[in-house]
């Protein structure tokens, strides 16, 4: 038996083979359950990352109209498409969009990124998101 902490890839392949073979008594249930939960967390992290990139570009779009260009527009469009694909493939992720704490974290990341990328002070950007979810996901200013 391969230990979880020795080689996670080999361990995962072994666990999959044990499950397929119906050898449930040999499955590392504790670590397998943790890994399954981590899959969900990974999906949530991707959603948050894409949303913060989108919001950062929307912030820069609003604050720096003189710098608007095809690159920003392309990024905004691509992040919207990627978010929609992710939400369509994993509908339970929509729960995140209803979570105020999730939005606070994403908004903080977006403000931080917009400030870093633009060189504009963090406090210049609104303390809370000025857009409705529909505007963010389907259309705003571009």
Folded structure, characterized:
By secondary structure, the chain is an all-alpha fold. The protein has a domain at 44-138. 65% of the residues lie in helices and 0% in strands. The protein is built from five helices and no strands. The relative contact order is 0.12.
In short:
By secondary structure, the chain is an all-alpha fold. Helix content is 65%, strand content 0%.
Largest sheet: none
Structural class: mainly alpha
Show unreliable segments. Answer: none
What sequence of helices (H) and strands (E) makes up the elements?
Answer: HHHHH
Question: Could you tell me the radius of gyration in angstroms?
Answer: 20 Å
Query: Mean pLDDT, as a whole number?
Result: 95
Number of E-type strands:
0
The coarse overall form would be elongated
H/I helix tally: 5
Give the helix level as a range of percent.
55-70%
Roughly how many Å apart are the termini? 55 Å
Q: What is the strand content?
A: under 5%
């Amino acid at each position: 038996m391969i230990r979880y902490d020795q080689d996670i890839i080999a361990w995962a392949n072994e666990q999959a083979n044990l499950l397929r073979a119906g050898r449930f008594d040999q499955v590392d249930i504790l670590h397998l359950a943790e890994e399954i939960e981590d899959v969900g967390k990974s999906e949530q992290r991707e959603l948050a990352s894409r949303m913060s990139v989108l919001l950062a570009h929307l912030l820069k779009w609003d604050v720096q109209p003189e710098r608007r260009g095809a690159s920003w527009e392309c990024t905004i469009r691509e992040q919207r498409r990627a978010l929609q694909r992710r939400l369509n493939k994993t509908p339970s992720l929509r729960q995140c969009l209803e979570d105020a704490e999730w939005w606070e974290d994403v908004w903080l990341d977006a403000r931080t990124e917009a400030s870093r990328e633009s060189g504009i002070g963090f406090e210049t950007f609104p303390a809370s998101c000025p857009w409705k979810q529909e505007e963010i996901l389907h259309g705003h200013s571009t």
